[in-house]
Amino acid sequence: MAGIYRNLLIIDDEAAMRHMLRLVLEEQGYRITEAANGVEALARLGKEKFDLILSDIRMPDMDGLTFLKHPEVAVLDATIIMMSAYGSIDTALECIKSGAYDYISKPFKPDEVILTLRKAEERLQLQHENVSLKQALSRYHTGFSIADIIHTSPKMTLLLDQVRKVAATDSPVLIKGETGTGKELIARALHSESGRNGEFLAINCSALTSGLLESELFGHVKGAFTGADREKQGLFAIAANGTLLLDEIADLPLELQPKLLRVLQEGEIRKVGGTRTEKVSARVVAAAGRDLWEAVQAGDFRSDLYYRLAVVDLHIPPLRERPDDIAVLARHFLQRICAREHRSVPLLTDIAIGQLRRHNWPGNIRELENYLEKALIFSVADELELPPLGPAARPRDASPAEDLSLKSAARRLEEEYIRQALERTGGNRTQAAQLLDLSLRALMYKIKDYGIN
User: Fold this and answer.
1) Are 230 and 222 in contact (CB under 8 A)?
2) Are residues 21 and 105 in the same domain?
3) Full-prediction pTM beyond 0.90?
4) Do 92 and 197 fall into the same domain?
5) Span 333-359, pLDDT tens digits
6) Do 202 and 298 share a structural domain?
7) Pairing of strands 232-233, 219-220
8) What is the pLDDT of residues 205-224, one digit of tens each?
9) I need a surface site. Which of 129, 184, 285, 305 has the fewest CB within 10 A?
10) Nearest Cα to 182, choosing from 158, 165, 160, 167?
11) Residues sharing a CB contact under 8 Å with residue 65, sequence separation 6 or more, in sequence order
């Protein structure tokens, strides 16, 4: 089904050629972005996702083949078609070997370009269907796939690498992160990567009273208490060979903590009102929105249980520490919400992305999704109109010591200035270094340090 992949980047040093292609392809419904050479194109790639790229070969500053072989281009999902008036069979073969989908010799007729793009779209659609099928099979067996976690930042890539490494073990895992960062998604990813054939179950430890929570976790025998007219299996038993997520573990009542510790140490439970123990095989994953060690120091949580739960400790960075994820998450949420509401997806402009990146997002990913849903309700234009964003409030879960750290504040300010300079110069690092009064070498080091793409 052609016509889905519409973001197209044209790279050519001849303005007349870019203009002609824009006129022809906009009539076919493509959304066109232009670049005069490979350097300018790389800067565009840092700001927007392109499905298709038409690139000339002979250009100043950075030619088409150098662009094609660039590390940032090699990892793109985009389909690249090369163009040249000076080509030969050897040139065409080199382009294909370097990752291009096709090669067009200049001069060409508009219909040739349109036909090549249509074929490329069909190929993209087949690839998309293949990926979707694989993900559907993964969800069928595990209920979730780690590929469902949308990200582009180095911090999240590192976290998901850790998830893959620890997933196959039976050790308990403690997932830490502010409200709205996606702790349950990480727990589901652990389960999907573990190869366990049991269920993934989750329970919020702060949502039930102590008595009800004990019954939910361990089950009860008939007559154990008023209303217990039949025997009940607990979540530990139901999640046999699966994964049990204990969310908001810091709120687990003190009287239940020794019983959970016994499960972790001995691998067995005793139902409420029961006299015999039962072996369980569920893998325990705990999640905490507040600092669990602070709860230990306050006397609200047992230190021995803490150490048993935190055999593996995973921390999800808040959204403000991974601004590179904001654009991809925003586009993902817009597509999902628009699909649900049966409406076309509006364009998320560079200006809008800049607004989103500058906000602190104290509610993290959940706040971003809710905000975009609100924006879609009131936006009727082809470009998404963003309602005013409130002041960047301090996250509820952040401690005053964290918030008042001059060192952390200085790093955040430095990172923001570097990002603004790169945006202002269209990704030109030499010009950005001049704006920032830094050497290019120092700027490159800081870009790497902050994980800026």
Assistant:
1) yes
2) yes
3) no
4) no
5) 999 999 888 888 999 998 899 999 999
6) yes
7) antiparallel
8) 988 888 889 999 999 998 88
9) 129
10) 160
11) 57, 94, 95, 98
